[in-house]
Design brief:
This protein is mostly helical. It is about 80% helix and about 0% strand. It has one domain. About 10% of the residues are buried.
């Protein structure tokens, strides 16, 4: 059931039923607000361990960066007019992690931290989008030139 259907159904309810529905939706939002970051942290730790063969040490700024990054991804999803769900957010986040690593960018791979992934989001998003569209990034061009010159 999408948001519009929920609203239409809520308008047909009695005052008491609306209050119960509102309370339930608020609970779901609260649960959602804590589930996505927890799932995001788990996904990051799993990915980091797989790719770098070591655990990731979390500090307070990483949690802040994770929330900000999830919000940025959520905004991109809503801009693309996709029906939002926590599962879609986490799946998109996992895709983002894999895509950043697949860029094979020396800086990103050497600094694969939550702070960098968040602060460089726009730059990374453009690089990922460019790669999907078959464009060759400047980083890739410079690596090829370095390889040819050596």
């Amino acid at each position: 059931m999408n948001n519009t259907e929920i609203i239409e159904a809520a308008l047909k309810l009695s005052q008491a039923d609306r209050a119960r529905l509102l309370h339930k939706l608020q609970q779901q939002q609260t649960e959602s607000a804590t589930l996505a970051p927890a799932a995001g942290r788990d996904a990051f730790c799993e990915f980091y361990l797989e790719k770098f063969s070591t655990g990731y040490y979390w500090v307070a700024k990483d949690y802040i960066a994770l929330r900000q990054l999830l919000n940025k991804i959520k905004k991109k999803l809503t801009e693309q007019k996709q029906d939002y769900s926590d599962q879609l957010l986490i799946d998109s986040y996992k895709h983002y992690l894999k895509a950043v690593y697949a860029l094979n960018n020396e800086f990103y791979n050497a600094n694969f931290t939550m702070s960098i992934l968040n602060s460089k989001f726009n730059e990374i998003y453009i690089a990922i989008s460019g790669k999907k569209q078959g464009k060759i990034s400047n980083d890739y061009k410079s690596r090829i030139l370095r390889d040819l010159q050596s």
